[in-house]
Amino acid sequence: xxxxxxxxxxxxxxxxxxxxxxxxxxKEKMPTLNYPSLDPTDLKNFVNPLNLPGKTGLLGVLExxxxxxxxxxxxxxxxxxxxxxxxxxxxxxxxxxxxxxxPIIKMKQGDTFTASLLNNLNEKTIIHWHGLHVDWRMxxxxxxxxxxxxxxxxxxxxxxxGGTYWYHPxxxxxxxxxxxxxxxxxxxxxxxxxxxxxxxxDLKLGETDIPLVIQDKRLDEKGDLVYRPxxxxxxxxxxxxxxxxxxxxxxxLEVSSRIYRFRVxxxxxxxxxRLAFLKGTETLxxxxxxxxxxxxxxxxxxxxxxxxxGERVDILLDLRDLNMDDVVVLKSLAFDPMHREENSGYGxxxxxxxETVKLASGKxxxxxxxxxxxxxxxxxxxxxxxxxxxxxxxxxxxxxxxTLSASGQQWLINGMTFKMYEYPILVNKNTTEIWEFINEPSxxxxxxHLHGFMFQVLERINSPEKVKQLAVDQQxxxxxxxxxxxxxxxWPGERVRIAIDFTHSFAGEQVLLTHCHIxxxxxxxxxxxxxxx
Length: 533
Ligand code: C2O
Ligand code: CU
Ligand code: CU
Known about the structure:
Blueprint: E1 2-4, E2 9-11, H1 16-26, E3 48-49, E4 57-58, E5 61-63, E6 69-81, E7 84-95, E8 98-101, E9 104-108, E10 112-119, E11 127-130, E12 151-157, E13 163-169, H2 175-180, E14 185-190, H3 192-201, E15 209-217, H4 231-236, E16 242-245, E17 248-249, E18 251-257, E19 259-266, E20 273-279, E21 282-284, E22 286-291, E23 294-302, E24 305-307, E25 312-318, E26 327-332, H5 349-356, E27 365-375, E28 398-407, E29 410-413, E30 425-427, E31 432-439, E32 446-450, E33 455-461, H6 465-468, E34 484-485, E35 487-490, E36 495-501, E37 510-516, H7 519-523, E38 527-532
Bound molecules: CU-O-CU linkage and copper (II) ion (2 copies).
CU-O-CU linkage (C2O) binds near residues 170, 451 and 515.
């Protein structure tokens, strides 16, 4: 057993079978949870040491180069809250003596990644490497899902830029449940720009360069996870009322007065965050240095942003001006979530939802409490340039409209839902296209994701006022639109134009997916195959 802090997370490694069967007996004695002690709107609750990536264990950093990894998807018992046991799904990986749970896989650009999935769950699964430019047979298309006891082998060259990518399951109709129950991990790619940045700012992964996966979950009174979306929650997305970062509920991070890099992944099924750092009531500025597909050309100063499911943002936070014991809180600020239930013919939803989820969409709450505990002599400067991003050449590009709408309780892309062996979007290899996502005004926000190819956001048209206010240029783009992307949030009434270069060197035609990254939407079929041939 590894104990990560007294009030923190207890992780059971090894002998999980025994623990699971022993658990039924133990359950009687388990303390019951009361929501007020977990309520993320109350900063007093933020006392649990944030789970940080170490050399092993939960979120341990695993160098993937030159290994043939076995990732076993299995059930495991973890304590998410105090002594209460929760049944999770995890990726269990061994590397020699070291055991990992949902490891942070680290690769250098250009290196070959070799791994196998072993499915020890009682249902089908497959791993998708979110953001990676790989042959589609390596991409975790749901048609490749394997059943209990099944395996799937992966072998690909890591072609992507340095950046914060991630992996998660992708079986048809049950991705939301499997990811929610714990199957997700970071996949970090390092390139020379990345190394320059780390050296220049003296950043160390797990200490001052910290991946943060934010997830909202619901717990029962025993501390076990609850995933039981009703029809309305399948339509609106399943949100939780306890906020986890790196699987630590109500986390606390002790820091020294210097620059920190946070690589934030919204790993939630459906919740959008409006991220800001606050010291008391004062909003602290921070730098955005990267997006889904790695570093920006230069740091961009901001004080808030929206981050939707599937998206990543790379941030620098300068804590040098702070004093000992100062507290900074990473919060999600209040916003209108634009869940237009009435308009989409879904009256009743608000009330139904209130009964089950205590933390309404768009409500303000805390995510991570940061306390300055050490002063450090730190004289590094945020660099003026980070990397280069070549704009996609749009000469000859054709525009393809992608409409997002609903019919009854079903979300649609171009009026269609997912069929495993239908290919409604056909793209010619080695061409460039502009995809224009057009979200109906009466819709809700949809984070739209593409497999296989990274894209560039060109323009946002007709954005809602709160989004317009955060625009960083004439094109209405957001700070999260400035780099390479694989997921882009499309608000109701908005048109978002993206550029995609479909040049690739993979053999044969590629069957890839575009879908909404609200996982309940994906599971109910807000997803289409697209074929590049
Ligand atoms: Cu992160 Cu198809 O998904
Ligand atoms: Cu993906
Ligand atoms: Cu959606």
